[in-house]
Amino acid sequence: MLTHLIILLDDTSPSYCHYDVTLKERRLIGLDDLKSGILFAMKENLNIQFVYPSYELPEEYVEAIESIDHTKIKPDSQSDEADVLILSDWKEVITDIAYNSTCIIRASRTELLDNRKQLKALMSKISRLNIAITDVDIFSDNDIDSYKNLLSCIADDVYAIIKTGKSLQVNLLTDLMMLDEMNNCNAGVNNITLAPNGRFYLCPAFYYNNSQDEVGDLRTGLKIKNQQLLRLDHAPICRNCDAFQCKRCIWLNGKLTLDRNTPSHQQCVIAHLERNSSCDLLEKLNRNGVKINNTHKIIKKQELDPFNIVNRWK
Amino acid sequence: MSQKIKDNSEGWQSGMARSITFIVTKDCQLACKYCYLVGKNTKERMDWKIAKEAIDYILDREREFPEESVAWEFIGGEPFLEIELIDKICDYLKKEMYRRDHHWFNSYRFSFSTNGINYHEDKVQNFIKKNYNHLSIGITIDGTELKHDLNRVYKHSEKGSYKDVVKNIPLWLKQFPGAATKVTISSTDIPYIKDSVLHLYNLGIKEVNINCVFEDVWEENDDVDFENQLIELADNIIDNGYYKEYACSFFSEFIGKPMDKELDNQNWCGAGKMLSIDAAGNFYPCTRFAQYSLRDKPAWIIGNVRDGIDQNKLRPFLTLDRTTQSSDECINCEVASGCAWCQGENYDAADTHTIYQRSTAICKMHKARVRANNYYWNKLYRKLEMEGMKEEYERQKTKVKESIC
């Protein structure tokens, strides 16, 4: 069931996930489209998440946006009143960030390792960090140890921060502790995106990858073909998996396996390395007397790709 | 080669064979009206370099191809148009499987599906003699001259090809007495089904594998006409005793039953467990995913002879099951068993880029088949009971394989 509408206010609104913003020219969503999008969300009972560009919006846009309860996803250059902040520059991440912010950082695995100090400083100031890995598609089995090491480094920093009594969530490591069922992105099932061209897309990635890949528009409404194939119960590898924190990105699925309901080897291995690191972190916290209200015990797994055992589930 | 090559049946594990298909040409003498190959052309002919690279790639990776046996298949267009290349490929395969002491040596077949037009030619016959113990050749003949020539026509003249094919049937059956033929039914063929199957029996072909095309070609009342044809065919087969020695895949005791969501959840077709290679050196999960087979979708390329197979692009195929790709109507269908699908057609007809949307264009034809099939078995078993032959029949009945491609 759809619960959220994401509205990209401009073609240059920054990415908050795996995809790259491929459009460089500013194009603000038409005011009529913005108002129609808001009306659509009100009638469909959807929560709206506005993704802001890195410049100030005209007054009439601000007025329209403020006419409805919403979440502001903003680039760090426009951080005022942001509910979620997208960080673009490692040097600036540490300044002027309020403790209760949720931040998103997009980075390659190498960038994360190279900027570990800044990452730790950032985590010590905020309540939640979502890390979006930008190079999932080029991950290979040769990278398993280095990603394990990266997660271990971040986990050490998370541990050190939590140990001081501060509350901190990092999607890759702590989400799994609080989940007892899949909590995937669910693009096209729970959320849909309205792009600046007034058309709907499963998520922003589809818009930036191919603007023809729409799933309806404001005039004719949503037309999501094969929507059942976006659901967890129609994903043979994922529906029995317990790496609950995995994004299960249907855009990456389509890009790497050509079918949106099938995750790539990379996505599975990455999610399971995160799963195992969550397990290590939870054990370390418990061992050292830090109380975590985890929902279930995480058991480490040797098999990193559930595809290899999927036939046992059939 | 000092090692003895086993005979045809020895060592060959058909149930555990990997199919590897060389699309040696996209050309054919014919332009059959129901042919799913929409992109046939004279230009895309495989050259030796690509063929050799493909063979080396596959044989170099013995552990990635662990099946006990292999069927090296040659397809077109019309494969025998490239008999010289095929001969070279087969010689190289035999030599290399032997040299490498590959586990497929002595457990391989060369398999062909041909229109039969140049079956009698010296080059083809020499090839058959040379590889006889490892050959499987199917000639497609659709039945009576009228039925055959309705669809199977030459590409420029639109002249029917029946006479050029039927003259080669005696030679083929002499060389391969148990050979089966494959018949494809489209909308316009329905009135000729009974006569065609009986005609093929009379030509001496004892196994007729026959199926309706999966494409959405069916007209109103086709199912009624189809059912009537099958009932007439059933009467003929039973009344004239053909059932004792002949088989027709339309009639099977295993079709038309409900299917369990969990216990009967296998995929129907083997796409993804096969490998096809085209003239450009691209790999496909099945020939049906090459561009010349697809009307509306881009080719589903899973790699090429230079870069190898991208396993990610095979994952959707290897995790396919029946229920995930089926609608609730299909899952709960009371006559579901035996209702086939072609993964390539599913992909081509799907609303999105997916192999997980089962095409149901064949639904009413399957239901008609089930009704006729029920009639066939009720009538046959009653007759056998009356004659006291039921147990004898059960012991000896001809097994028919379900053939869909």
Q: Strands across the major sheet of chain A, in which order?
A: 7-6-5-4-3-2-1-8-9
Average residue pLDDT of chain B: 92
| Uncertain stretches of chain A | none
Would you report the number of β strands of chain B? 11
Keywords:
heterodimer, A: alpha/beta, globular, B: 405 residues, alpha/beta, TIM Barrel, three-stranded parallel beta sheet, 34% helix, disordered N terminus
Characterization of the model:
The complex is a heterodimer of chains A (314) and B (405). By secondary structure, chain A is of the alpha/beta class. Chain A has a domain at 1-77 and 189-223. Chain A has helices spanning 31-44, 59-65, 109-114, 116-123, 144-163, 171-174, 204-209, 250-257, 265-287, 310-313; strands at residues 4-8, 47-51, 70-75, 84-87, 102-107, 128-133, 169-170, 191-194, 200-201, 216-217, 221-222. In chain A, the strands form two sheets. In chain A, strands 7-6-5-4-3-2-1-8-9 form a nine-stranded mixed β-sheet. In chain A, strands 10-11 form a two-stranded antiparallel ribbon. Chain A is globular and about 55 Å long. The two termini of chain A are 27 Å apart. The relative contact order of chain A is 0.13. The mean pLDDT of chain A is 94. With 405 residues, chain B is α/β, with parallel strands linked by helices. Chain B is 34% helix and 12% strand. Chain B has an eight-stranded mixed β-sheet, covered by helices on one side. A three-stranded parallel β-sheet of chain B has the order 5-6-7, with helices on one face. In chain B, α1 runs parallel beside α2 (83-99) and α7 (193-203) runs parallel beside α8.
